[in-house]
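In response to the reviewer comment on reproducibility (Comment 2.3), we provide here a single inverse folding case reported in full, input and output, so that an independent group could reproduce the run without further information from us. The structure tokens appear first.
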């Protein structure tokens, strides 16, 4: 139901401007605040259930079992939340709640894997690595689902960086710099080169750590101007965004050269925390999905029996037709 609610929120936010324009003659724009107010609470509820449900043993949800199952995830969440608060991450409160829930979900899944692996090690005498592998392979739907849950938590990790996004716009000359977040960015040079049917103007920018002054890398955002096509007075420009990506955050560099010939350019730089986790989540969820849908021996036997029965039924029908 929560997933349906999130899907309906996205659908309603998309079609509402068209409905409003058709009914009232006024086109209303649905922006980020709408999704923050409606979809964000649903997402928090979904994240909570991902961590909560695996801890409730089916038909064995006694007080003792609940206390035993929730103890360590809650301790991990409390410690993680305290560390985040100590580092100054107190606002927005929604981001802190999501961070604590991510810790809770991961602690829950890690404990589930640990308990299952330890049980196989004790009961079957398997090594821990073998027990861990067999645990997943013999219970594909359950533990493959847990891997998918880890991917979902990673997606929320990427969303967590939204409130901490930074943006700077500034016009610079070669040799000048700007500061954004923990970085100093220096506009080192601007150059151009021609290729077939296009002119490229690019900027070389050095990225430095603000505290240590250490050079972290070089990026080259550029803008391409294509030759006009037949019937066009002016060719189409194309902006090539430069990206410096890390597990912590991504930097995006947009370059706008001055077209009047002056040696200066406009820059728009974004810092998006945790965006790489969105891409990692895709691979993790794909891996978990493959495990879930991979047929096991029991399912293969069931499918073989079904196909055999269908084949036998078809033969019987053919015999009846011949006899009749």
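Designed residues, in position order:
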């Amino acid at each position: 139901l929560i997933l349906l609610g999130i899907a309906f929120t996205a659908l309603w936010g998309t079609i509402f401007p068209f409905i409003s324009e058709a009914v009232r003659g006024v086109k209303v724009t649905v922006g980020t605040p709408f999704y923050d107010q409606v979809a964000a609470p649903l997402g928090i509820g979904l994240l909570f259930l991902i961590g909560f449900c695996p801890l409730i043993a089916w038909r064995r949800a006694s007080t003792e079992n609940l206390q035993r199952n929730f103890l360590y995830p809650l301790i991990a969440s409390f410690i993680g939340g305290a560390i985040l608060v100590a580092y100054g991450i107190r606002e927005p409160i929604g981001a802190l709640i999501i961070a604590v829930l991510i810790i809770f979900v991961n602690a829950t899944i890690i404990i589930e894997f640990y308990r299952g692996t330890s049980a196989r090690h004790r009961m079957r005498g398997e090594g821990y690595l073998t027990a861990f592998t067999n645990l997943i392979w013999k219970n594909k739907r359950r533990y493959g689902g847990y891997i998918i849950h880890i991917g979902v938590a990673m997606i929320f990790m990427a969303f967590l960086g939204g409130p901490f996004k930074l943006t700077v716009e500034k016009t610079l000359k070669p040799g000048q710099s700007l500061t954004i977040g923990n970085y100093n960015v220096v506009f080192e040079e601007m150059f151009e080169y021609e290729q077939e049917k296009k002119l490229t103007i690019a900027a070389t920018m050095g990225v430095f750590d603000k505290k240590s002054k250490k050079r972290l890398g070089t990026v080259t955002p550029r803008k391409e101007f294509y030759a006009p096509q037949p019937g066009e007075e002016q060719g189409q420009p194309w902006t090539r965004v430069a990206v410096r990506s890390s597990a912590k955050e991504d930097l995006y560099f947009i370059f706008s050269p001055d077209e009047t010939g002056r040696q200066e350019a406009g820059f728009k730089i974004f810092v998006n925390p945790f965006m790489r986790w969105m891409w990692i989540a895709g691979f993790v969820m794909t891996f978990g999905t493959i495990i879930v849908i991979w047929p096991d021996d029991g399912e293969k036997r069931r499918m073989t029996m079904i196909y055999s029965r269908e084949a036998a039924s078809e033969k019987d029908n053919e015999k009846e037709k011949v006899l009749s």
